[in-house]
Design goal:
By secondary structure, the protein is an alpha+beta fold. The chain has helices at residues 10-15, 37-50, 79-97, 113-120, 148-152, 175-179, 191-202, and strands at residues 23-30, 54-62, 124-126, 129-131, 137-139, 158-159, 164-165, 185-187, 210-212.
């Protein structure tokens, strides 16, 4: 797979960091078949090195889907995942203690193209590009403007004063919906819950951690 999917503000996050040769361990999470681990790990690695860090290890670990647990990895991380994470941390410590900053394992794609295409088929297409149908949302009168949604939005897509969303920024993670204490935010359209239901049953693939040492 060659498509690039940027779901966070790498330039802003790394722009204020200067490694000066310090060790760096990149870690991210993933939840279903559409997640391209190789893309995010490679982008994290590239940004870290650009800022002067010495990348010692990379890791991607499974977690429950942010939209709905049924969409992928329900109940994750589990006890076995936690053991893998602890072992990853121990191995990284030993590696860095030896002054080893070479990535001995190749960052590989954990999602097959068939699985990715099946997942992508449930996403809308505009101008030949897949877009998230989960982005359109509405805020009800139950909103108390506590700004919980604003604090948890990873891309600053919410104007809480006007109760609007910048859909060009929104990545459809549903952090706002899942975090709202008043349940005031919901999908803007009845087709989204049905889409989620179909998607959750479309692809069922067990995921394991991807660790590059």
């Amino acid at each position: 797979m060659t498509a690039s999917l940027v779901l966070t503000k790498f330039d802003e996050i790394f722009g204020c960091l200067h490694g000066n040769g310090a060790p760096f361990v990149g870690v991210t999470t993933f939840s279903n078949t559409y997640f391209m681990k190789v893309v995010l790990l490679e982008e994290i690695k590239a940004h870290a090195e650009k800022q002067g860090f010495k990348v010692a290890a990379m890791g991607a670990f499974p977690t429950a889907h942010s939209l709905a647990a049924s969409l992928g990895n329900e109940g994750r991380p589990n006890a076995e995942d936690e053991k893998l994470m602890l072992d990853f941390g121990r191995r990284v410590y030993e590696k860095v203690s030896k002054g080893d900053y070479v990535l001995h394992d190749k960052i590989g794609e954990g999602t097959s193209e068939d699985d990715a295409e099946k997942a992508a088929s449930y996403r809308a297409v505009e101008d030949g590009h897949h877009v998230f149908p989960f982005r359109a949302k509405k805020i009800s009168d139950a909103c108390i403007k506590c700004r919980t949604c604003v604090r948890h939005c990873p891309v600053d897509a919410i104007d809480i004063e006007n109760k609007t969303f910048d859909l060009d920024k929104c990545i459809g993670c549903w952090a706002c919906i899942n975090r709202c204490p008043k349940h005031a935010i919901s999908p803007d359209g009845p087709e989204v819950p049905e889409l989620v239901k179909k998607f959750s049953g479309a692809v069922k693939v067990p995921f394991v951690a991807e660790m590059v040492m």
